[in-house]
Design goal:
The protein is built from 13 helices and 17 strands. By secondary structure, the protein is an alpha/beta fold. The longest helix has 18 residues.
């Protein structure tokens, strides 16, 4: 058995890989794809699912979808190929969402994909396809579970007690059920590189220390996110980008409670408030802030940096839907550049349809990302966060090189080179290799953007520093 120092070295290597990978593909998929509704939320908090373009569905109809789920066109190798072609370095699949439906051959339940007409283990097939393609593999697992009678009294509608009932004697049975699932997922599905929990709030009821200990015993070098207790390896803002570079928290993180969340829902239902929030969420903005607030600094020391990842949808829903508002490819590229320039990873979501196909809109955007990354990937992979570069640009760095990524035109046609980068030698545009003129006449170094720069997609200027 590896000693402590060996385990620490393995964890350092895994975290280094993760921070260099930068891009991942998130997949939300389950029987709900047949109805084109959001995963789980329509039966938990219908008001939430409709805020961002999702549809409503009665709980009995939602649960009945499990009996007809038969995605005959699912091909794990094609999914992994699409992700890898787009430049993604890892893939995360929803093994169990809040509704409790399992996309793997889960012990202790019949509410799973292997008990559907399809009868195949999606998680197993994706794990194998990732291994074949050299893609790192991650598993999303939801501690909340609307289907299990130990999690909540299932004789009541889920919207009445979706936050769980740990005061009931059956709660201990539910935690044991969770343990069986996690032990199975971490021992029967090959190499699992990331475990992506989604505990929502009040994590203590899930006994985080117990589960982190089990996970570390089974997989000493697995990476775990921050949604099951405070001991995660990376933090996960959602559907937004922090205002600067996240740094390690010095005090205790404030968690929202079930009571506070319920109060928020009541406020959302007030006249005018719902319409305002819905409009905000519907705006395809690149300046949306994440729901969770993290401490940040403009350009922190490396020992203060907090590894992080933002997960984001291509349209407004995680699951497959008919939502017509898709983020344009150029917006996704700008968002990706901003995330990486602040030291983060970009976990971009796809919701496959009822047959197991990626929507054509998603495939188009993955192709545009592939095209841009084929020219500009060196400014993304293996880089660390750079100093602020003004309103129309961001920067990244690695070993003697910096990259200034122009996100839009400036009034002067020039960009300021951050002083923190030090002495700058040659500047050239990736793709063309054209040397870019540096204006050294003033207090700040400034470079001139090419005349044909249209700001539709980010332009990368490579700097020798």
């Amino acid at each position: 058995m590896p000693d402590q120092s060996c385990n620490e070295g393995m964890m350092e290597d895994k975290l280094r890989w993760y921070q260099e990978a930068k891009l991942g593909l998130f997949i939300h998929w389950g029987p709900y794809s047949q109805a084109g509704v959001e995963a789980s939320w329509p039966i938990m908090v219908p008001e939430i699912s409709t805020l961002s373009g999702g549809s409503v569905i009665a709980q009995d109809k939602y649960e009945a979808l499990a009996a007809t789920f038969h995605p005959v066109e699912f091909d794990a190798h094609q999914w992994v190929k699409a992700a890898k072609n787009a430049g993604m370095r890892y893939l995360v699949i929803t093994a169990k969402h809040h509704d409790g439906y399992c996309m793997f051959d889960a012990p202790g339940t019949e509410y799973k994909i292997t008990n559907s007409p399809f009868r195949r283990d999606v998680v197993a097939e994706l794990s194998a396809a990732c291994a074949t393609a050299g893609m790192r593999f991650g598993i999303y697992y939801s501690p909340p579970d609307m289907h299990h009678p130990g999690y909540r009294d299932t004789s009541k509608p889920a919207k009445k007690n979706w936050y769980g009932e740990p005061e009931r004697a059956a709660w201990a049975e539910y935690l044991d059920y969770m343990e069986r699932h996690l032990r199975h997922l971490l021992t029967a599905y090959g190499d699992v590189d990331l475990l992506w929990f989604d505990g929502l709030f009040e994590h203590d009821k899930y006994q985080p220390a117990r589960f982190h200990r089990i996970i570390r015993d089974l997989r000493p070098n697995i990476l775990i996110n921050d949604r099951l207790g405070p001991m995660g390896d990376f933090v996960t803002p959602e559907q937004g980008i922090p205002d600067a570079v996240p740094v390690r928290r010095t005090g205790k993180k404030k968690e929202i409670s079930a009571k506070a969340f319920s109060w928020t829902i009541k406020v959302l239902n007030l006249p005018g408030v719902r319409q305002f929030v819905s409009k905000k969420l519907g705006a395809l903005s690149e300046n949306l802030r994440p729901l969770t607030v993290f401490p940040t600094e403009p350009f922190p020391r490396e020992d203060r940096f907090q590894p992080w990842e933002t997960c984001m949808t291509m349209n407004r829903t995680w699951a497959y839907s008919e939502d017509p508002l898709w983020k344009p490819s150029e917006l996704l590229l700008r968002l990706m550049a901003k995330v990486v320039a602040r030291g983060g990873n970009f976990l971009l979501n796809v919701g496959p349809d009822r047959l197991g196909r990626f929507p054509p809109q998603a495939m188009e955007r993955l192709e545009e990302i592939r095209r841009w990354m084929s020219t500009n990937g060196e400014a993304i992979y293996g880089t660390s966060y750079g100093p602020p570069a003004g309103d129309n640009a961001v920067s990244t760095r690695k070993s003697g090189t910096a990259y200034l990524i122009a996100l839009g035109k400036s009034d002067t046609g020039k960009l300021t080179i951050p002083a923190e980068l030090g002495t700058v030698g040659r500047a050239s545009a990736l793709g063309t290799g054209d040397v870019t003129e540096i204006d050294r006449s003033g207090d700040d170094l400034r470079l001139t953007l090419p005349n044909d720069f249209e700001a539709k997609v980010p332009l990368v200027i490579k700097l020798e520093v």
